[in-house]
Design a protein that fits this description.
The protein is α/β, with parallel strands linked by helices. The protein is 36% helix and 10% strand. The strands form three sheets. A six-stranded mixed β-sheet has the order 2-1-3-4-5-10. It has a two-stranded antiparallel ribbon with strand order 6-7. Helix 6 runs antiparallel to helix 7 and helix 9 crosses helix 10. It starts with a helix and ends in a 12-residue tail after the last strand.
Length: 385
C-alpha cells in the first residue's frame, strides 16, 4: 500500500473512531440517571410530615383525597415532591423527623412547613419554624454520617448505601416564606439587599452539600406568591376596589409577584455561577413560577374553577379561618371551614397550598424539562451541561 493510501485509510479510521466516540457520548447523555435516592429540602410546599411529627399532628380534611387520612402534608393529597418521586420510580419520601413507620432506603425529606432559608426569630407558636435551611442541611449531614456507621456495621438495610449519596438527586423548594417575610417589611429595609442575602445563604447551603458529595441539584424557584388566594383583596375586605395596576389580569397582586420575580432572577444568576465553578456537578434551575402561573392563567381551560376560589377554610371580608377549624364563629354565628365537595376542581386547597390535582398538573409540566434550565427532564438531570 502506497503512503498516500495509508494516510487515507488512517484518516478514515480516525474519523470513524470520532464518530463512535460522539455516538457513545450522545447515548450517555440520553440515558436515564437511575437515581436510587432523593434528598429534599424545603418548606410546606414539600413537607411530607416533619412539622406534623415534631409538633401537633395534621388532621383531616388534610390528606382526604389521596391518602384518605391526614398524611402530614399541606394538601388534600400529594405534593409535587410526591409526584417527582413517583416519576423517578421511587417511594414517597419519609420525613426525617418522623420516627414511626418511616423508610429511608431511598432518601429522606428534610423539608418543614413555615421554614425559611434565613434564620428566623419566630417560634412554631408564632407561625415560625426551627428548621430553616441551615438546620435541614445539618440534619442531612448527620443522617449521612450515622447511616454510614450503621451500614459499615452490617445494619444499613433501611438506609441508602454510602455510594447512593453521590448518585442521588438533591431537590430544593424553599424561599416562599422568606419572600413573605420581606413583603411584610417592605419600606423598612432594602428589598434588593434582602433578596441577595437570601439567595447567597441558599447558595452557601448548596455548596455545603456539594462538599458532602452531592452532584445533582434540582432547584425550584419560588412561585407567584401574589396569586395565592389569601393575598387577593376579595378575601381580605368587603367591597374593596383596588387601584389600577395593583392586580394583574389574573387578579394576582403585582408588587408581591414582582418581589418573587426579583428573587427568581437572582437565584437563576446564582445557579449559573455555581454551574461555572463546580464543573463536575449538575445544577438544574426549575421555573416553578411560570409553571404555576400558566395553570392559574388557564384554569378554566384546564378544567379548574376560578383560581381565586379556596376549597378548604373560610376567608371572607378579612376573616380567616383556616382549613379544618371546626370551631369558627363570627358574631356568634358558626362558620363552615371544612373542605369543598370536589377538591379536584380547585387549584387552591387552603388559600396558600395547592390541591392534589393542581400539584399533579404542575409536576407533569416540570418533570419533562419544559420549565428547566438547562432543559433536561428530571430523569436525565444528572447530565452535565
Amino acid at each position: 500500500m502506497g503512503l498516500l493510501k495509508q494516510l487515507v485509510v488512517a484518516v478514515i479510521l480516525l474519523s470513524q473512531e470520532f464518530v463512535s466516540i460522539g455516538a457513545d457520548e450522545e447515548v450517555k447523555a440520553s440515558e436515564a440517571c437511575g437515581f436510587e435516592a432523593i434528598f429534599n429540602f424545603g418548606d410546606s410546599n414539600s413537607d411530607t410530615g416533619c412539622m406534623s411529627a415534631a409538633f401537633f399532628p395534621a388532621a383531616l380534611p388534610y390528606g382526604q383525597t389521596f391518602f384518605h387520612e391526614a398524611a402530614g402534608r399541606a394538601s388534600d393529597g400529594r405534593l409535587i415532591i410526591d409526584f417527582i418521586a413517583k416519576h423517578l420510580g421511587l417511594p414517597y419520601l419519609s420525613a426525617y423527623m418522623d420516627s414511626i413507620g418511616s423508610s429511608y432506603s431511598h432518601g429522606a425529606n428534610f423539608a418543614a412547613a413555615a421554614s425559611t432559608i434565613r434564620r428566623q426569630n419566630r417560634t412554631f407558636f408564632d407561625g415560625g419554624s426551627p428548621f430553616n435551611l441551615e438546620i435541614q442541611v445539618s440534619q442531612f449531614i448527620q443522617f449521612k454520617t450515622r447511616t454510614a456507621k450503621f451500614y459499615n456495621q452490617g445494619q444499613g438495610n433501611s438506609y441508602p448505601k454510602p455510594e447512593d449519596f453521590s448518585k442521588a438527586i438533591y431537590t430544593f423548594d424553599i424561599g416562599q416564606n422568606d419572600i413573605a417575610a420581606a413583603l411584610q417589611r417592605m419600606g423598612q429595609e432594602d428589598s434588593e439587599a434582602v433578596i441577595s442575602d437570601i439567595v447567597d445563604q441558599l447558595s452557601n447551603q448548596v455548596i455545603y452539600l456539594y462538599n458532602e458529595g452531592a452532584r445533582t441539584f434540582w432547584i425550584h424557584n419560588t412561585g407567584p406568591i401574589g396569586c395565592l388566594p389569601v393575598a387577593m383583596p376579595m378575601h381580605n375586605a368587603y367591597n374593596y376596589t383596588p387601584v389600577p395596576g395593583y392586580l394583574d389580569q389574573n387578579g394576582c397582586v403585582v408588587y408581591q409577584n414582582d418581589l418573587a420575580k426579583g428573587f427568581n432572577r437572582k437565584l437563576n444568576d446564582t445557579v449559573v455561577k455555581l454551574r461555572a465553578v463546580y464543573l463536575d456537578a449538575s445544577f438544574v434551575y426549575v421555573d416553578m413560577f411560570s409553571a404555576k402561573y400558566e395553570l392559574i392563567s388557564n384554569a378554566k381551560k384546564e378544567g379548574f374553577e376560578d383560581p381565586s376560589k379556596i376549597c378548604c377554610g373560610y376567608h371572607e371580608g378579612g376573616n380567616h379561618f383556616y382549613c379544618g377549624n371546626y370551631n369558627a364563629t363570627i358574631n356568634g354565628t358558626e362558620i363552615y371551614a371544612g373542605s369543598c365537595k370536589d377538591p379536584s376542581s380547585h387549584i387552591s386547597w387552603d388559600g396558600v397550598h395547592y390541591t392534589d390535582a393542581a400539584n399533579s398538573w404542575i409536576a407533569n409540566r416540570i418533570v419533562n424539562g419544559s420549565f428547566s434550565d438547562p432543559p433536561l427532564p428530571i430523569t436525565r438531570s444528572c447530565s452535565l451541561a
